[in-house]
Amino acid sequence: MSRKAFKELLQKYIDGKCNSQESTLVEQWYDLLDREPEELTSIEELDDYKFQLWQKIEQKTIKINLPLQTKEIPLWKKVSFRISAAACLLLALTFSLLKINQKNTETLITEKNTEGFYTTTNTSSAKQIITLEDGTKVTLQPAGSLRVPNHFSSDKREVYLAGNAFFNVTKNPEKPFFVYAGKITTKVLGTSFFIKSEPKTANIEVEVVTGRVSVFEKTITGKKEENGVILTPNHKVTYFQESNLFVTGLVSEPVQLNNVSNAISFKYDDVPLSAVLDDLEKNYGIDIMLENEHISTCTITANLAEKPLYTKLDIICGVMRASYTVNGTTILITGKGCE
């Protein structure tokens, strides 16, 4: 019996189209099974399993032309049970093949050389880290791709991004690092930042974690960099392609800067608001303004340690009976002040 005949007969049995001898043959197969398909871990094992089973089936076929005897049949030998088991066997074989193929074809990173460049694409469902020749690490998100020269030039480092990625660029003042994404260029010397692309609108967002980043529109070679912004940590810019506009703002979750020399406990006991806000500005690199300067002398007693920036501000405003808003890259606190 060929593999094709085996599969066709099994399907015929499930559909209820077998004659009595064919049904008996299928039912006797289960006496031959001593291993579950789910235990198999490779296509080779699965093929070997089916080959051995078919060999046993061919041997067993010689013995099945016997009169059927009337007797009480155990549950596991009843037709209804065997139909379900046959269906499960087909599903199990199919699922095993799918799982095996998935393991073999789920390529995390694929590379393709083209004209002195190689393109790395993340075809997996998890982010992947790529290390470039200068030590720069790029965390490429799923479906993202990065086009990189086989070797960087002597005066600059250039890469082309499609999708989302986080860059941790190795510092080299002599060779600035350029990331081209859509219609914008991001230029750095050594820093870490995110670049996110919106497929539907083609808008691009850049968020800075450390260092300084220059973001501007692509220009003709030799032209001065225009229509752009300089970003510092905890700041972001969104480029709207249709209107060619850059809109700056703050990241959704600002983090404390790594280069702050004096560690601050953020535990305050009867400390003026102005001093508390100075600590926040230094530690997060964000401008915080008071609409009413009179509340700067109001004192605060609170433990703000190990809390996100916006939680700190919630506590401060709760104590001061005030509120805050994020206006672009500035946080504005509004309130009447202490009594």
TrEMBL record:
InterPro entries: FecR, FecR_C, Ferrdict_sens_TM. It comes from the Bacteria. Residues 125-213 form the FecR protein domain. GO terms for molecular function: sigma factor antagonist activity. Residues 266-333 form the Protein FecR C-terminal domain. This is Ferric-dicitrate binding protein FerR, regulates iron transport through sigma-19. It comes from Pseudarcicella hirudinis.
